[in-house]
Specification:
alpha/beta, Alpha/beta knot, 8 helices, 7 strands
Length: about 220
């Protein structure tokens, strides 16, 4: 049975309202941008960025737990991760390798640069790294980055809370896509249908057999 046949099989098990919602949202999903969270200390911050990514239609979030383990916090995520693709890495090098192989440029948040996120070439697929609340991103990550950037700020305080920074960053990315036409950054139809199939499966059967979290050694 191919994907379209499987989708058709699920249609009868989902209300029309839910079908319309999932179909509409799937057409707004993008992998042009993704968020990467490197060794954040507070798991609430990670969960907040995941939830915000879902709201803004970014399908993938990559979490590096080389130093600080991350456990899914359902009370913070509010079910949002069911609709996401979460990749959790034990090694930062594996995350970087996978992102490079997928064609992403690497942009790392830093308070030590003059480059604004507004100066980046956002026409290229870009993975945005946010680092530890205390130390920022690892020196190896900074050395491997294509860009360092910071968010526009006009106050005295050096930086924002990392989950707030993630939300502000995604607002800029969303504005960029809206200006250019969000359809230009949508998933290819084959990817969209596969994602929609996953969503129907998780909606009907739960996530035990189709978990949105992939752990990578």
């Amino acid at each position: 049975m191919n994907i379209r046949e499987q989708l058709q099989d699920y249609y009868t098990q989902v209300t029309e309202r839910r079908r319309e919602l999932l179909n509409t949202v799937s057409k707004l999903r993008t992998r042009h941008f993704c968020m990467v969270l490197e060794d954040l200390f507070d798991p609430h911050n990670i969960s907040a960025v995941v939830r915000t990514s879902e709201v803004f239609g970014l399908q993938d979030v990559h979490v590096i737990e080389e130093e600080n383990p991350y456990h899914v916090n359902k009370s913070i995520l509010k079910g949002s991760y069911k609709w996401m693709s979460l990749f959790i890495y034990k090694k930062r090098a594996a995350c970087l390798q996978n992102l490079r192989a997928a064609g992403y440029k690497i942009a790392v948040a830093s308070t030590n640069t003059k480059n604004s996120v507004l100066d980046l070439d956002l026409s290229q697929p870009t993975a945005f790294y946010l680092g530890s609340e205390f130390h920022g991103n690892h020196p190896d990550t900074l050395a491997a980055a294509d860009y360092e950037f910071k968010l526009p700020q006009y106050g005295i305080t050096e930086s924002m809370n990392v989950s707030v920074a993630g939300g502000v960053l995604m607002t800029y990315l969303d504005h960029f896509m809206q200006q250019k036409g969000r359809a230009a950054y949508a998933l290819p139809e084959s990817e969209r249908e596969k994602l929609l199939l996953d969503w129907y499966d998780r909606h009907i059967n739960g996530i035990d057999k189709n978990n949105p979290v992939q752990r990578i050694g």
